[in-house]
Amino acid sequence: MDKLKQIEAFVSVVEKGSLAAAALEQNITPVMLGRRIDALEKRLGTKLMHRTTRHLTLTEQGTVFLDHCRKLLTELDIAEKIISEGRHKATGHLVVSAPAAFGRKHVAPHAPAFIASNPEVQISFNLTDRVVDLVREGYDISIRIGGAIDPNFVAVKLASNRRVVCATPEYFRRHGIPKTLEDIASHNCLSFNLQGGQQRGWYFQQGGKPVIIKTAGNLDCNDGELLHRWVSEGLGLGWRSTWEIESQLASGELLTVLDEFALPHYDIMAVYPQQRHLPAKVRFFIDRLKSIYAQPDYWSKG
Length: 302
Description:
It is built from ten helices and 14 strands. It is an alpha/beta fold.
């Protein structure tokens, strides 16, 4: 028999003063309620109350136990209320991981406004281009751009994005425009070198199938913002995300090539561990980013 039901039966009978009144409140028979109290006393190995048809008297042990039971049920009610409110009201500590450059420019700047409208939330950011272990490292959510997602995680699309090959007009005037994927080999490619990054090559789609093109160049690093700067300075080809270069494409500062081979989807996603009830702090933060990124001119602002 459920321990909690036994305790609730005991407290209810004491507070109502009789089995009949307590049974009516709990919508069960007095016999069933009496069995629960009998089972509780048997499990504890002591008599908690003396019952007659007219009177109910607590034993000394019953009086002590009643006080603890009331505190237990009160704490349980409070805990359930906190959890229930947490599903509808954003509270607590939100721990977020995001790529360094993207996080600095498009995630962290939106935190103050989010906290202003959700004052019971505290946010911690870890901006890194490393793919973090969400569960082991204790993150509530990770913002990721493209890549495979572990089936134990949920991925929510925040915004559309593609990876494109780009360079300055001056670079193309000096070195020519690549027309095929094989042409990339003759260009100075500025690549990301962090483990899990672009050390294997750049990813494309050809004939409906994904392909990897090995690249080489005289500069590489583990910082996407630095790579973006090098590309903007005309030092070589870059394989950059459209979120990063949208304003430069609009102004003509950068040009893309080989667009027909670009992966169709390299979207910006919010990733979190699968769970039955997603905390409001996570759900609200995802919804806020989606609404911001959906603004028509957001990405073109630079």
